[in-house]
Amino acid sequence: MKRNNIKRTMLAFLTLAGAATSFAQTNNSAYFLEGSTFRHELNPSFINERDYVTFPMLGNLNLNVHTNTGIGDFLYVRPDGTLTTFLSDVVTRSEFLNALPDRSRSALELNLSVLSYGFHAFGGFNTIGINIKSDTRFGIPREFFSFMKDGLGYDGAVYQVSDMNVSTSNYAELALGHARQINDRLSVGAKVKFLMGLARMDFEVEDMEITATPDHWNIRPNEVNGYVSIGGASLKTKGERNDFSEDDYVKDEFGNPTTQLKDGVADEVSLDDLSLDNLGISGFGLGFDLGATYRLNDDWCFSAAILDLGFISWTNTNHLDMKNEFDFKGFEQIAMEGDDDPNSFNNQLDRLEDDLKDLARFNKAGMATRTTALAATLNIGAQYTLPVYRPLTFGALSSTRINGSYSWSELRLSANVAPVHWFEATVNYGLSSFGSDMGIMVNFHPRYFNFFIAADIPFTRLESAYLAPIGRANMGLNVGIAFPFGEKH
Amino acid sequence: MIQKKNRKIFQLVLLSAPFMLASCVDSDYDLSKEIDMTVSLNGPGMTIPVGYTDSVKLGSIIDTAASATLILDDDDTYVIEKKDKIETVNIEVTPPSIQPIAPVFDGVQVYFEPSTDIRQNSSYIARVNDVSSFEINEEIDAAIKSLKIVQWDQPVNMTFTLTFDNFPEEAIQQGIYLDNLQISFPEFIQFAPEEGIEKGIFNLSGHFDPNSGMPYVRTFKITGMDFSKLPGKPDGLTIENRKLFIDRSLAQIQVSGFISTDPDEVINTDKLHEFSILPTVEIPAMVVDHLVGLFDPDIEERKETAALNLGDDLDFLKNEQTHLDIDNPKFQITLTNTVGAPADISLTMFGTDAQGTTISGSEVTVDLSGDKGLAPADNDTPVTTVFYISRKAITLPPAQDHVVYRNIIQEDLNKLVQRVPDEIQVNMRTRVNQNETHRISLNRDLDITGDYTVSFPLVFDALDIVYSDTIKNLQDDLSDFLDKTKTMELILKGNLYNAIPLPMQLSARAMNASGVALSADNVSVEVYANGSKDGLITAGSQEGQAAVSDIEIHITAAGDELRQLDKIEWQVQVSSEADNNGDITLKSSQYLLFKDLKATVKQITLDLN
Q1: Chain-chain contact of A83 with B25 (C-beta, under 8 angstroms)
Q2: Comparing C-alpha atoms, which of B200, B206, B250 is closest to residue B220?
Q3: Nearest CA to CA, how far is B32 from chain A (Å)?
């Protein structure tokens, strides 16, 4: 039982290690498939051939997992063929640490199109979409793993921990888009998105100093913050709830709780106490997508788009911070007379354990409205149609996510074919911050029915039981059902 | 133009490319199988500050409250002390007694004749001369080896009688006069001083009328006997086979002298005729109250046991490896003597271990004889002798009446506690001094009472001590950790401040729950002091100045045996220089103190499977 728990913990850790980036909308494989219903998600200047309406809830389901590390970075094959962890002595530190990126990042993204409707009118193509988007990210610096593998060294060290975080952002959007052809060569489009925040939580260690020398251990959270914005959720402090545990009281010299509360404990909060009984909207925002397409000639077409320019203003954001400093210079005057003495080893060890628990506690710093920018994406594409076989095109798409330390970029080269008017497919190769992958998408779009499925398959070896990527991976699955109708434009 | 067939092939290849190129399944990675969760810290390790301990004073390690025989003296020095009483030595002696003496005289036939003495020219005189003897043959107490003088509590009345038979009363009517009639007794018979007696010879004078029909009777008081007056016995009688024997030849009674008539009485000589005089002497039984002589009672050997319960704290001093050279141990024995004779005492002391086995080399014999012996009672007043038996001279208390202090130097007394015994056996053999005669009162309690104090100040010239202690039940707290640890190298470093004036050698070993040592190849606990494995921890100074030693404890484990670890036995071996001349003193204020303790995890492998 214990062993299974350890394994599960290990796998979860391996899966989630790192920090997220990217977003969830539509698979980039669809960029050059002109029959793809949700192509306009990638560039609002793209104009669908026909009007459409999606199958409710199944119009566009997109799930992406990105990691710049894989299980092969944490699990190693021993000479006898069994697997072991990076903490095994058969794995050298250089073998482990040299293979890790500076910052291990992972992201889990979900985009669910509740309903989308596109139609030609007003001199162009118009879209209305209701989407739910979820983006969860983790980031851990390499120093953390170095610490796990190496320890601190006999002479100790001072670690400056930063850029370690976990974040989840969940919101719904109502997107209204319009694209129109300016002339034979140029099309432009734009979307305006009305955003409704559902929940957002960010916990980030921006600056934590860990001094671990043979004489002095100190953990000082200079800048460790958390932001919790969940509409309708209640996150009350212990003082507000008047709910204190034994550990919240100052202990006497023998480790027994007194009636005096510890400093700051009344302001402590715990996510375990988060009440989710009356969930609602926790913020509003506005976003824009802008795009343009320029057809140079019959063979070449260039396009560019900037997506998600905007913000969400999260109301009633609980600002949490971590202020308790842990300081340990060794036990003092360790009494050798047993536990009756307040300075006995066990009593001092209990106090040390309390100090460590206090360190990990968050205090409620206040309530505020917090505005976060959307992560903007810049897509620039070029498409070449093979003159000798015009159903075959080749595309190059550069995607750049502009999101601070979570920014990433990708170059994807694709070969696209539409052998018949109701079917098209693409294979592509992407090289990104998360490694390389091969993508494939098939899109069936006969009249009145459109089904597509796309997958990004990491260009790496896969584990045999669960097909988990052994190396860093960019994985995605995009599936949807829509109903095109109307005349072809 | 691309042919139609080629186009289809191209499209097929295009669609299948991702599956062929992008990924392949690596069967080496199979998460459905067991993953070895053995984790190791093989890097440069890490060091954790542990801190410092409180001063661990000897007073807390060696708690006098836990021991009935451990005290602190005024100088804060530990002293092993045991006091107890000595069972009273009763001396049973039956006072000698002498049966009644009644020597038989033959009697003499006498006839009055005119005196030729001018002084008695008108008298008639008769010569009296008779001799008798008696024998003393008494069985007396075996304790009495010689008798010089015996005396009774009260003088005994000896009765001397002269009986006249067929006295010529018709011729002599005025009675007679005893004229220088002497009764000679043996000189050893001691009479109370009175007029007319000298050296056992009584001169009887005076008028007596035998016509009264009554015999002449005189009593004399005998106070005792002085056997040194016996011819050739200046030292008295030697008692052999419990026999007090005096031959008749030495115990004669002679009656000699004259009786005469009154010079003024006219004697009808016709009526004179022989008559007889029969002397008798009667001495009743005599019981000796005190004597002068040699007295050698069979005094039962006293065997005292002093149990030294040191409690758990100092039990290590009873280990076989322990060798103590205590600077000046003391054994005080106080004896009160009611016997008027000095006594020679031989003390034999030795230690026994918990099994009652004599500790080899611990026997010490102390001679308390002669002028070092037990002082006699002073004229029936008990005298107390206090013996301070010590290895080195001590200052005796001021003198007191009827108390004698003696300091007996016994240089090998430290042998008794070279290893602290569970019990000290004290055998005390006592014999009344036989070198000279003594005056002994017999009709009173004769005994020797007393007590003793064993006192060993823990001040050493040298010592070897092995102190062991065990940290037990590690499995209770650490079983989860120990079960998962395959290899480990942990180093605990620090500075040890030692204010105990002893160099120490610290070692340790790991044991399982049954107390069986684990193989050092698998689980080892090594102690380094001042850079050397099993090195010496520097001794503190006698003045209390602590010496600092670098200490490292290396705990290394490999293999599965670590999971059996349940006990760590610590052993402190103390070996001083050969002769410190009493410079090593254990005081409760001496201490050990660890500072700058740091734990370094150098290498550890945990099996989390």
Answers
A1: no
A2: B200
A3: 6
The Cα A291–Cα A301 span in angstroms is 14
> Positive or negative CA dihedral for B462, B466, B471, B472?
negative
Instruction: For residue A43, count CB atoms less than 10 angstroms from its CB and return exposed for 0-12, middle for 13-18, buried for 19 or more.
Output: buried
Residues 7-46 of A with CB under 8 A from B: 7, 10-11
d(CA B319, CA A256): 42
Q: What percentage of chain A's residues is helix, strand, coil (to nearest 5)?
A: 15, 55, 30
Report H helices in B102-223. none
Contact by Cβ (8 Å): A450, A484:
yes
What is the rounded CA–CA span in Å between residue B328 and residue B407? 13
Measure CB to CB from residue B18 to each of A152, A156, A427 and give the nearest one: A427
C-alpha distance from residue A185 to each of A292, A297, B359 (Å) = 10, 8, 116
How many A×B Cβ pairs under 8 Å? 195
Burial pattern A359-384, b for ≥16 Cβ within 10 A else e, equals bebbbbbeeeebebebbbbebbbbbe
Judging contacts by C-beta atoms under 8 Å, the chain A residues touching residue B60 are 336-337
B290: left (phi over 0), alpha (psi -120 to 50) or beta: beta
Q: B420, B422, B309: which is closest to B356 by C-alpha?
A: B422
Is A464 in contact with B27 (Cβ distance < 8 A)?
yes
Cross-chain Cβ contact B23/A461 below 8 Å = yes
- Answer yes or no: do B39 and A87 touch at CB < 8 A: yes
Residue recorded with tokens 């410079």: B583
Q: Does A1 touch chain B (CB under 8 A)?
A: no
Three-class SS state of B75? coil
CA–CA separation, B581 and B501 (whole Å): 13
Instruction: Return the sign of the alpha-carbon dihedral for residues B266, B268, B274, B276.
Output: negative
Q: Each residue of A416-461: pLDDT tens digit?
A: 999 998 999 999 999 988 888 888 999 999 988 999 999 987 777 8
SS3 of residue B228 by DSSP? helix
Does residue A337 sit at the B interface (CB-CB below 8 Å)?
yes
Shortest Cα distance, chain B CAs vs residue A309, angstroms: 33
One digit per residue, the tens of pLDDT, for chain A of length 489 reads 344 444 444 444 443 333 233 344 568 899 999 999 999 999 999 999 899 999 999 999 999 888 888 888 999 988 888 888 888 888 888 899 999 998 898 888 899 999 999 999 999 999 999 999 998 888 998 888 887 887 666 677 787 888 898 999 999 999 999 999 999 999 999 999 999 999 999 999 988 888 888 888 899 999 999 999 988 777 888 888 888 888 788 877 777 888 888 888 888 887 777 777 777 889 999 999 999 999 999 999 999 999 999 999 999 899 999 988 899 998 988 887 667 788 888 888 888 888 888 888 888 888 889 999 988 999 999 999 999 999 999 999 999 988 877 788 999 999 999 999 899 999 999 998 888 888 899 999 998 899 999 998 777 788 888 888 888 777 889 999 999 998 888
Residue B107 exposed, middle or buried by CB count within 10 Å (0-12, 13-18, 19+)? middle
Q: Do B36 and A388 touch (CB under 8 A)?
A: no
The CA-CA-CA angle for residues A177, A179, A184, to 5°, reads 175
Cβ contact B15–A442 (<8 Å): yes
d(CA B293, CA B298) in angstroms, rounded, equals 16
Minimal CA separation from B516 to chain A, in Å: 26
List the structure tokens of A418. Answer: 């539409």
Nearest residue of chain B to residue A335 (CA atoms): B54
Q: Give the predicted TM-score (pTM) of the model.
A: 0.68
* A330:B50 CB<8 A: yes
